[in-house]
Amino acid sequence: MGRREAAAEVGSRRTVARAIGKAALLAPRAPAATLPALAAVGPVPRRVAALMRPAPMGRAWPPVCTAAGLAAWGAAFGTTVSALSSANSAVTLYFVLHAATTSV
After folding, report:
1. Directed axis angle between helix 13-26 and helix 3-10, to 10°?
2. What pLDDT shows up at residue 27?
3. How far is CA 43 from the centre of its chain?
4. Which of 31, 80, 84, 96 is the most exposed place for a label (fewest CB within 10 A)?
């Protein structure tokens, strides 16, 4: 289970970040890095820092009553109409060609 899944399961990103931090403090020490500055940079501090930031926003479509929403929904509708029109043309062409090449 990843940190995001754990945070979703527990319901608190801060609680998971604290648990990861405590586990890192209790873990056996790795060999010392050649530069002391590199010792603080690692996967655990980055994971804890990521969990301490606000949760990422879900990707949702904007409401239709806004300019961005109207543009997005209009583009989606136009794309759908265009795709259906192209499909209709392809099916019609198939039947025309099939009728022209089939002898009665």
Report:
1. 130
2. 66
3. 21
4. 31
Q: Can you read off the two tokens belonging to residue 32?
A: 């010392």
Q: How far is CA 87 from the centre of its chain?
A: 30
Query: What was the pLDDT predicted at 42?
Result: 66
Kindly compute the dihedral angle of the four CA atoms of residues 32, 34, 40, 41, in this order, to the nearest 10 degrees: -120
At 50, which helix (H) or strand (E)? helix 43-52
Give the integer Cα–Cα distance in Å for 49 and 38: 16
Please identify which residue in the block is written with the tokens 């009728």. 99
Contacts of 60 (CB under 8 A, 6+ apart): none
At 35, is the secondary structure helix, strand, or coil? coil
Q: Round to whole Å and give the CA distance between 71 and 88.
A: 26
Residue 104 and residue 100: Cα distance in Å, rounded?
Answer: 10
Check residue 35 and give its pLDDT.
47
| Ranges under pLDDT 50 in the chain | 35, 38-39
